[in-house]
Structure formats: structure tokens, C-alpha cells
Model the fold of this input.
Amino acid sequence: MKTFFPIRSALCAGVFLISTLAITPAWAHNPVASCQAVGEDKVRCKGGFSDGSAAPGVTLDVISYDEKVLLPGKLAQDSTLEFKKPEQEFYILFDAGPGHVVEIDQSEITP
Done:
């Protein structure tokens, strides 16, 4: 009885190659956000993901230090939101879902 190891090896290698190509990699994309002052009384924030994708419609809220939502917001089509700077201390919460949250304190807003 003859065993055809070369054919069996080639078949196994082919199955492995096809299954490897069929698996798509799961690329992680983390949320990124930045805010900067626009004049004396406005702030403009831009949100997105580390893979370069935009985030239109994603929640970006302005929240006081006592946890009251001062401005509930959603990013516009260009993934930005501009708002009047609140009188009290605040932070910005970019919330793209569980595990995809960025907080920006007012002290981190660039001029």
C-alpha cells in the first residue's frame, strides 16, 4: 500500500492558505477627539477614530463637574461640534459606545 504524502501535504497546505485568506483581520479603532478655543467664548471639537474614519452623529456632550449635562450634542457631518463655552467648569465627553469614550477636561482645550 502506497501513501501519497506529497499530495496530502499539498492539500493540507492549500486548505490552510485558503482558510488564512478567508479570515479578515479585526483592526482596532480607538476613539480620538480634540477641542480648541474659537475666540474668547466658543469651543470647537472634532471626533473620529484612530483608523482615520469620521464620526458623524456620535455623541459629544458638555458636562459640568457636578455631572449635569450642559449641552447634549451630536457631531455634525464633518465630525465637529462648536458650542458656547459654559460659565462653570466643564468637561467634554465623546461617547462612541462601550469602551469607546474620550473625556477632555476644560484645561486641555488648546487656544
In short: The first strand starts at residue 31 and ends at 38. Residues 37 and 43 are 5 Å apart (CA to CA).
